Amino acid sequence: MLSSGSAATETIGGTVMVERRRYVRFEYEGRVRFGRVAPTVDDHTPVEVLTGDPARIDVVATGELLPMEVMRMLAPVVPGKIVAVGRNYADHIAETGLGAPPVPRLFFKPPSAVTGPDTDIVYPEQSRRVEHEAELAVVMGRTARKVKAADAAAYVFGYTCANDVTARDIQQADGQPSWAKAFDTFCPLGPWIVTGIDPGNLAIGAMVNGEYRQRSRTSHMLTPVPDLIEYITTAVTLEPGDIILTGTPAGVGPVRPGDWVSVFIEHIGTIRNTVTSGTE
Ligand code: MG
User: Fold this and answer.
1) If we measure between CA atoms, which residue out of 75, 261, 256, 262 comes closest to residue 167?
2) What is the 3-state secondary structure (H, E, C) of 76-102?
3) What are phi and psi for residue 79, nearest 5 degrees?
4) What CA–CA distance (Å, rounded) separates 270 from 275?
5) What is the DSSP letter of 87?
6) For residues 49 and 33, is the Cβ–Cβ distance under 8 A?
7) 85 CA distance to ligand 1 centroid (A)?
8) Which is it for strands 22-28 and 15-18: parallel, antiparallel or unpaired?
9) Listed residue (85, 25, 77) closest to 244, CA to CA
10) What is the pLDDT of residues 61-110, one digit of tens each?
């Protein structure tokens, strides 16, 4: 059995070790369910179907096994809210021409923007410049309010890949990130949540049509994950299933209808989406 609102754990030398697993959400034969699978497997390894959303409730395996290849993979979590951080990588700050912010620059992305792997990012007709932003997404596993950075890891369920898609021309015209980043399909998440990894120094990047556009490491964050959780929860209670988007490294750039864009993070995987015209 998995422990409440978190991945399977064991205690070694007084340190809680979280087992590294992949957690998926999928649709099969018209039903949406959750599953888990060991991390070092290929796509043919069976997925253990779970009794519910592992980020939010106690779950057990139902005993049913399904091959991943028969599933339609969905965003691995349906967040209640998405707190996002702007200008959090030194290399990205340099390319924006703007300075490092004195405190984290937070905005909120609506949960309605979430889409899953292998879906389309719809290019809005209001924009002439849509850009990709590869980001590490933190998935919360426990209610977190006024949590200290030193304790923050215990409140995290796991991590997944995110693309903080942005209508850059709209952002620059009106200065409102929560509007320019809010369009439907502007928050691909997935392909799964990975538990039991340290978010502090992971390779992260993005490709467009198979060419590298962003390559960095999460160690370049100005405010790392534990400190973001401390800062955010001074004001906002984070609930299980909520998401933090932790900012993007250098190399953000445009995508166009017909392109495919992928975000990859070490020890997690790759989410890939195709960009389509909103007028089709
Ligand atoms: Mg961003």
Assistant:
1) 256
2) CCCCCCEEEEECCEHHHHHHHCCCCCC
3) -75, 145
4) 16
5) S
6) yes
7) 6
8) unpaired
9) 85
10) 999 999 988 999 999 999 999 999 999 999 888 888 888 899 999 999 99
Residue type, 9: T
DSSP state of 218: G
- Which superfamily does CATH assign the domain made up of 82-277 to? Fumarylacetoacetase-like, C-terminal domain (3.90.850.10)
Give the integer Cα–Cα distance in Å for 218 and 238: 22
Structure tokens at 93: 């700050």
pLDDT tens, 154-175? Answer: 999 999 999 999 999 999 999 9
Residue 4: is its pLDDT beyond 50? Answer: no
Query: Which residues make up the CATH 3.90.850.10 domain(s) of the chain?
Result: 82-277
Q: 217 C-alpha vs ligand 1 centroid, how far in Å?
A: 15
Ligand 1 midpoint to CA 35 (Å): 28
**Residue 80's Cα: distance from chain center in Å?**
14
